[in-house]
Amino acid sequence: MATVVMTSLDAKSRAASRGMSDMKIRNLFIIPTILFLIVFNIFPLIYSLGYSFTDFRASTNVSANFVGLQNYRELLNDPFIWSNFAITAKYVIVSVSGQVVVGFGTAMLLNRDIPLKGLLTTLLLLPMMLSMAVVGLFWKLLYDPSFGIINYALGFGSFEWLSNPDMALYAVAITDIWMWSPFVMLLSLAGLSAVPKHLYEAAAIDRAGPFYTFFRITLPLVAPILMIAIIFRTMEAFKTFDIAYILTSQPTTEVISIRLYKMAFQEWQTGRSCALAYIVLIMVLAITNIYVKYLNKVKER
Amino acid sequence: MAAVRTRSERALNRLAIAAVLVITLIFLAPIYWITSTAFKPRNLATTIPPTIVFEPEISPFVKLFTKRSQMRGAPTPEEYAAAPWWERLVFDGGEKVVRSGRGDIQLSGYPNRFMNSLIVAISSTVLAVGMGTFTAYGFSRFKVKGEADLLFFILSTRMLPPVVVAIPMFLMYRAVGLNDTHWGLIILYTAFNLSFSVWLMKGFIDEIPKEYEEAALVDGYTRMEAFFKIVIPEAATGIAATAVFCFITAWNEYAFALIMTNRRAQTAPPFIPSQVGSGLPDWTVIAAGTFMFLLPVAIFTFLLRNHLLRGMSFGAIRK
Question: Could you give the dihedral angle defined by the CA atoms of residues A247, A252, A256 and A259, in that order, rounded to the nearest 10 degrees?
Fold first, then answer.
């Protein structure tokens, strides 16, 4: 053990003997981070797993009673929870597909000889660097039915975006699309610029039409990176809280994170909310698995 | 590409340029609108048709920093505005009284929340990037058992919805008294950013040739000296890029700040929306607060433009 495991170079082992051994340094560098993450990520989850089997309420001093699987059973049989998941799914589909259309479309346009391309790309990145909460707040001003700039610019009169239950979810999605299309654009642009130019030249010689070129050359080659963008955005959209919570309080926009927040910090059903958190956790892990699989696939290329 | 080009192709290109310009304008319009609202007099903020041309004012910012219900004998916002800038720049723990030459000024909650945001974002960035750099070096240069699994574990800590983690964290924090403290948020954001920092820094350190340190070791440096004198300077741009990413994430975070703080350590993201309230909010003041809050991020985005792509994709794409 004490013999420092070192390779051929004599000088190296001499150097190591003066300082710390590589093994020690490695442990010193890695272990604190792992421990930190275990204490602040894994431990709380285990802690809440315990609570998920109780009727604990953090707002009272009454001690928790063990109720077994009751929380889970009730949650899985609660149609309201399922409607929260349905709203979340609808939101994910609308906002992610919107981002793909706008983001990929913009990338296609930018992937030409365009003056000031770098500057335009940078400017387009700005929305996604902002705080979702603050973005939600100022879009509230933009959406205002009586003095919002959106209604004025589109000539919609006093159209209700946020207080109309049918429209509110789309309004939230539009804001999300504004914020995150640039992300899809950025990745698409990287994918597009990696497509070998000679393929297009060959297609031009064969007199291939623009549709053929797009569907047979561009799309298949960009697809893997576009897939990463889609999975990434899907995961993020599934987690949505800030934007939806701040923009509107319609029941039709109550995504699962908002339901969870209300259950835990407004209704103080701590035990039950821990159980719901676990149900969400399992769903996220499922999405994550798909994500990692695709990420590895693309990396292998 | 440019060599053979028909007339129709050139027209198409011009069309694409026009479309890109329009899209960029649409994307920037909301940011322009909030910025311009921040400099409007209150009566012009909510007019229809919207006021495009107006004389910019700083009164929204004055109102943002001072309490609107003035104490007796304290200067009015106008007097405050007339005071020299150094007097106006004194932030003293928020909602407290600042002595200016012209009497006492009661500050609003905003300067305090802004300072809290700065304290929390900077501290957690330093911690996350510091630990992240060490750990990334460890993974990059030494054999680690189950390296892929450990790295995946590190990444996975970032995939949960914040609200899911927030419930047990809230209970834990309450038990140990970390609720509504700067340290509480700093630790949370460090944990949050650490995974990102390790992954990003590993990408940067992997690209520094091992030979540099090996040469240093041969020259009689210890591993630690080689790390600090060779690797850290080589990775400086990567460290800067990672730091700005971590800063922006911590700066913008909302859900944890909403749940874990209420007054003492509250940051700006939960504070600014809470000022809207019911009734007729003064949108110029809210816009001013928003503008102040967006400014550092806008500057960083511009400075960091060349590193954004790699950071946003966890190094999946190299450019």
Answer: 80
Nearest-CB residue to A19 (from B224, B255, B313):
B224
Q: How far is B106 from chain A (nearest CA, A)?
A: 25
Q: So what's the ipTM on this one?
A: 0.84
Q: What is the pTM of this model?
A: 0.85
Give the residue carrying structure tokens 């994910």: A92
B-chain CB neighbours of A33 within 8 Å are: 131-132, 134-135, 154, 194, 198
Asked whether residue B278 carries a pLDDT value surpassing 70, the answer given is: no
- The pLDDT value recorded for residue B70 is 40
Q: B interface mutation test: which of A99, A131, A146, A188 has the most B CBs within 10 A?
A: A131
- Best A6, A34, A104, A134 member to test B by mutation, with max B CBs in 10 Å, is A134
List Cβ neighbours of B264 (8 Å cut-off, separation of 6 or more). B180, B181
Distance from CA of B77 to the nearest CA of A (A): 25
* CB-closest option in B49, B191, B313 to A41: B191
Angle at B266 between CA B261 and CA B269, to 5 degrees: 110
- Nearest-angstrom CA–CA distance, A98 and A77: 32
> Which residues in chain B touch residue A294, judged by CB atoms under 8 angstroms apart?
none
Mutate to test the interface with B, among A37, A270, A283 (most CBs of B within 10 A): A37
On whether the CB atoms of residues B132 and B197 are closer than 8 A, the answer is: yes
- Would you call B251 an interface residue with chain A, using a CB distance cutoff of 8 Å? yes
pLDDT tens digit at each of 301 positions of chain A: 344 444 444 555 554 455 678 888 899 999 999 999 998 888 888 888 999 999 999 888 788 889 989 999 999 999 999 999 999 999 999 999 999 999 999 999 998 888 888 888 888 989 998 999 999 999 999 999 888 899 999 988 888 999 999 999 999 999 999 999 999 998 898 888 888 888 888 888 888 888 888 888 898 888 888 988 898 899 889 999 999 999 988 899 999 999 999 999 999 999 999 999 999 989 888 887 877 777 777 666 5
Please report residues of A whose CB lies closer than 8 A to that of B268: 134
Cβ distance B164 to A277 less than 8 Å, yes or no, reads yes
C-alpha B66/C-alpha B111 separation (Å) is 9
CA angle A276/A280/A282 to nearest 5° reads 115
